[in-house]
Amino acid sequence: MFRRWLARGAFGLVVIALLAFVGLASWEPFFADKGAPPPAGDYRAEIIRDDFGVPHIYGKTDADVALGVAVAHAEDDFFTLQDVIAMARGRYGAIAGEEGAAVDFVYHLLDARGTAEREFPQLPEATRALFNAYAAGLNQYAAQHPEELKLANLFPVNGEDVAAGFALRQPFFFGLNNVIEPLVAGEPLRREFGPDIPGFPRDPNGDVIGPDLDGVPAQARAHPLPWGEMGALSGSNAFAVAPAKSGGPTTLISNSHQPLRGGVAWYEMVVESEEGWHFAGANFPGSPFPFLGHNRHLGWTNTVNRPDMVDVFQLELDESGMRYRLDGEWRDLEEKTVTLPVKVGPIVLPIRRTVYRSEHGPVIFNDKGAFAIRYGGIDSIEQLDAYYRLNKATSFDEWETQISRMAIPSTNFIYADEAGNIAYVYNAAIPDRPELGEIQVNWRGILPGNRSDLIWQGTVDYAEIPRLINPTSGWLYNANNEPYTAAGSADDLSPDDFSPVLGIEDKQTNRSRRAYRLLSEANLLDRTNLERIKYDTAYEREGYVADLWDALEALDPGADKDLARARTLLLGWDFTADSAGSADALALLMIKDFMSAEYQNKNAPDVAEHLRAKVAHLQEHFGRLDPPMSELLRLRQGDVDLPLDGGSDTLRASTTWRVDDDGRLSLVHGDSFIQWVEWPRGGGRVFSRSIQPFGAATTRPSSPHYTDQMQLFVDHKLKPVHFWREGALANAKRRYVVESN
After folding, report:
1. Superfamily in which the 548-651 domain is placed by CATH
2. Distance between CA atoms of 509 and 353, rounded to whole angstroms?
3. Which of 29, 53, 598, 715 has the highest CB neighbour count under 10 A?
4. The pTM is what?
């Protein structure tokens, strides 16, 4: 009897275990809020695919075109679009596991959904219609291709869902991750510090001495999930040249450096409607319009800038740990419990977490206390309308009117147009920090959270940020450098003319140093000279490069013969990553981490230790210290494997890579979408060329456009952009119509 009872008990446990497994494997799609479709609409778009598969999307209305943008992009990369939509709905952890759940936590922390719910209905009707039509296109593709879905009940979505994705991702382009990550980990912030407001002293290590945490509930002290990368180390080069300097056309060169795959990889398109929207450029997954490119009258490109856009406040908590003092009064922290889906193998675990908010903004607890963050563009999605209006601007005045709204939270703009105008705007929705007279406030430090006069509202005026229009030099550039080197010595702005409270960065990149030198030295910036500059692979021995080589000169290798040979090889390097020199491969490996440390305000690696690791890598995989760099650095996609040139911070940029099993470096981030635009001098139609590292269909191995641009990209060549309809039709390889159901 006991055995029968035991057997029945064991069977019962098995059943319970199976039921638990089934529950964990299936709860998430049903628990998640079921998406709502956008308002019904009749949309119709024509898609013309050229010989490289680039879509040219036509419609009677702008909304028609937006439907076509969604369908065309889904046809080429529905894989990535689903990830972006999952992020926009706080469900990415159900796809990407622990790292995805970290993104979902930030989604709730920043109140991306709440921002979209509050602000999307306030946008102009035409802008809302554009986003709803785009959502309709995504829904239609999902319904027609259920076999491609990663996650049940992810669709339908609406314009508000798409807007929530913007609210989540935009702050990471100006480095919000460099504040959130160390705060979650309880580490010092990665930026410059000076003396803070009295009352918040530091310990001998420079860390803020915070209040006692004895009364703070354990669940509130820190979020245990690893942060995970929301953004990427983004770079870019941008050039504009006036006719007098080019000897011919007004020229705009967009040379963005983004990850080659994923949620912030460029997707190329041409859009045209009967409502005046006609634009050639590229967007990121999840956007109904291009972020950069050109229309018939004007164009622009962007580079990442790094102003101080984030302020951190340490809250003074009461004994409960759930109230904070502000102007002498205790206030309750806003709190909201959320469920994070975390995929682990075949199951999805529901992890409950609480997010907090104060009057300042989102609140993060760590073992030093509670810290609130406030950042430029907080709780705003006005950029959705501004980008749309920029696409349709027909003159510099119209374009600048949209930029001056300060709606786009960050990124430099380099501009050019058919009239021969060129311009540079250090665009940033910099917080309008109060001037407090004799009280000295270090806005880059940790601010006391008990004073409401430090909680700024809105942004500075457009007139306060750096900008240059039509310099006498005839050229403008930016390569993620300070705005004070942009047009040559006769035209450059002075840092003395801008308030230090703006927090404008004062750093240079190697790309900036090279561009400034080469542009300044050129008598003529025609197509030949601009190509030479754009594909330059040299380093200046300045900044972190100088520091690294000074350290190599001072390095004593001792009895380590490999280290000594490597040091000698590097000291004889010609500082050019063109794959022609014997030290190029080793130099490539050495420089990247030093560049990254400088860019992200981290400590540089130990030179001897770093060099030993790179020597070991080359010896293991090549059996030598001096293999051709082209054998080390590769552009790989599917069965195509091609050699690359350029380094981590050269104008021809091969920024970061993954290390494959064979020891080769497969590029993951660097030169990505390149577009070269020319308006003929004296009038005439705009003409442009472009290139992508792989092809239009980056996640479709069966597509002929999976790898068809790779050889051109490696060879420094561009393909024509068929901006005008007759050109698109003359080069059409496929032509079809998509309509809403």
Report:
1. Aminohydrolase, alpha-helical knob region (1.10.1400.10)
2. 40
3. 53
4. 0.91
